[in-house]
Amino acid sequence: MIVIDGKKTAQDIRAELAAEVSAATAAGRRAPGLAVILVGEDPASQVYVRNKEKGCAEAGIASFAYRLPADTKQQDLLQLIEECNSRPDVDGILLQLPLPKGLDAQACLLAIDPAKDVDGFHPENVGRLSLGLPGFVSCTPAGVMELLRRYNLSTRGKKAVVVGRSDIVGKPLALLLTRSGEFGDATVTICHSRTPDLAAECRSADFLFLAIGRPRLITGDMVRQGAVVIDVGINRTSDGLCGDADYESVSAKASAITPVPGGVGPMTIAMLLMNTVQSWRQRTA
Ligand code: NDP
Over the stretch 152-184, which tens digit does the pLDDT of each residue have? Predict the structure, then answer.
């Protein structure tokens, strides 16, 4: 049984990006830049933003932090986004969600230049994903696909079940798995809270992707012998962090599994950095 080490994979990616950026800047190219916009005082968002800034610093990416008060007006936020859109040293724009009450997140995401939308939330990038065109892919599903690639777990011709249909994880992941290629070409079923027999659907999966947000909902009896289980869930319980899979019973059946923490989680920021570097490559080429 393979335990998929997302922490190590994310470190490898960060080291690769750092090497590429430092070689380019030594040759006189400007460093990649990421604008990070945080509105309000949400403690979880502050931690995420700090980690993203730290990740940028380690990879040699310049981060431009904009910390705005919770009573910021929509117009002022839109103006800041416009400013970031036109700054030549900004390759990516990250608007930390959720926004405080009174601000329209959808309108703000729409205002971000799709070519700088490194979170992959802009409808243009979502549309590109669905059409199979190049564009930015939401970081968590992109991180899942990168883990499959780096562990050489091909989904071609396999039965994949994605539990969860959110816009940021389940849906884009299902689209990525149906794209053509060795790490695509799967026959995909999407499950959600109205799926009548979740256990039977899960048992049919060669590849089982969990993005539910329910601690240990998926148990070993719901998993086919030898399945690959990718657990995106991050749940806080009284005995610490856990995934959507009951790790003990599921890992006894799986041929490969991501632990929580240390599986998909660390990949998200690595993919944000990768998207930023990709944008920078395109605009400095
Ligand atoms: P959402 O709450 O947006 O979506 C959860 C999905 O799970 C919904 O589609 C919901 O169905 C479905 N669901 C809920 N309960 C059940 C059930 N009992 N049976 C079947 N389906 C069910 O969550 P997200 O997609 O944003 O996140 C999912 C998990 O992934 C969370 O634990 C989150 O913390 C984690 N996460 C981790 C990230 C990382 O690793 N960096 C990044 C993003 C998320 P319905 O649509 O019918 O309500």
Answer: 999 999 999 999 999 999 999 999 999 999 999
pLDDT in tens, 186-211: 999 999 999 999 999 999 999 999 99
User: Which parts of the chain register pLDDT below 70?
Assistant: none
Shared domain for 161 and 109, answered yes or no, is no
Residue 109 lies in a domain: yes
Give nearest CA residue, ligand 1 atom 18.
193
Flag whether 21 is in a domain.
no
Task: Name the residue range of residue 48's domain.
Answer: 30-114
SS (H, E, C) the chain: CEECCHHHHHHHHHHHHHHHHHHHHHCCCCCCEEEEEEECCCHHHHHHHHHHHHHHHHHCCEEEEEEECCCCCHHHHHHHHHHHHHCCCCCEEEECCCCCCCCCHHHHHHHCCHHHCCCCCCHHHHHHHHHCCCCCCCHHHHHHHHHHHHCCCCCCCCEEEEECCCCCCHHHHHHHHHCCCCCCCCEEEEECCCCCCHHHHHHCCCEEEECCCCCCCECHHHCCCCCEEEECCCEEECCEEECCECHHHHHCCCCEECCCCCCCHHHHHHHHHHHHHHHHHHHHC
Catalytic entry in 91, 119, 206, 231: 119
pLDDT for residue 77: 98
What CATH number does the domain containing 43 carry?
3.40.50.10860
Does ligand 1 have an atom closer than 6 angstroms to the CB of 163? yes
Q: What is the total count of domains within the chain?
A: 2
- ipTM for the whole complex: 0.99
Please name the residue whose Cα sits nearest to atom 6 of ligand 1. 164
- What are the tens digits of pLDDT across the range 2-26? 999 999 999 999 999 999 999 999 9
pTM of the entire structure? 0.97
Q: Are residues 78 and 152 in the same domain?
A: no
Distance 19 CA to ligand 1 centre (A): 35
